[in-house]
Amino acid sequence: MVAIRVGILTISDRASAGAYSDQSGPVLRRLVEGRLAAQVVLTSTIPDERAAISRTLAEWADSGRINLILTTGGTGFSPRDVTPEATRDVIDREAPGLAEAMRLASIQVTPHAMLSRAVSGIRGRTLIINLPGSPKGARENLQVVLPALPHGLELLDGGGTDDSHQYQLTQARA
């Protein structure tokens, strides 16, 4: 089983300016450390600036230090919400099933889920997943895709086959 090394990128003008503290990043950290037994290696909070988001995603993915990047924020309809575009700027291949699964599950909770423009994709051997900016939305969406992540990351790492992986999530609750 591949070691899961995570980067959590919070994208928020207000949080990056210190107007309020990041709430979603810590929620994601607890979830991946508890349920995936992952190691969070990088965290940062940056403004909703497409170039800064793209640059950070590319640097993190290309560093070889992490194999999973979780972004939180910037996926809605606001003119400043540019996370999906910045993600598409840097990925080699999309992974649409992850975003589709998150929207499908979320729409059972709120009709606003259909307004999500989140994308997921692969750069090199790193999976990038866009999540909502609210702590509740980020947690609920990540929980939807958690069971598939160990297998997907193992495949990205060059190991396993589509039918050979045992899914293993710890029983800890975040």
Account of the 3D structure:
The protein has 7 helices and 6 strands; from the N terminus they run E-H-H-E-H-E-H-E-H-E-E-H-H. With 174 residues, it is of the alpha/beta class. Residues 162-174 have low confidence and may be disordered. It is globular and about 40 Å long. 39% of the residues lie in helices and 18% in strands. Helix 3 crosses helix 4. It has helices at residues 13-16, 24-35, 50-62, 83-90, 96-106, 135-145, 149-156, and strands spanning 5-11, 39-46, 68-72, 93-94, 120-123, 126-131. Strands 2-1-3-6-5-4 form a 6-stranded mixed beta sheet, with helices on both faces. The longest helix is centred in the N-terminal third of the chain and has 13 residues, at 50-62.
Provide key terms for this protein.
single chain; six-stranded mixed beta sheet; globular; 174 residues; 39% helix; Molybdenum Cofactor Biosythetic Enzyme, Chain A; alpha/beta
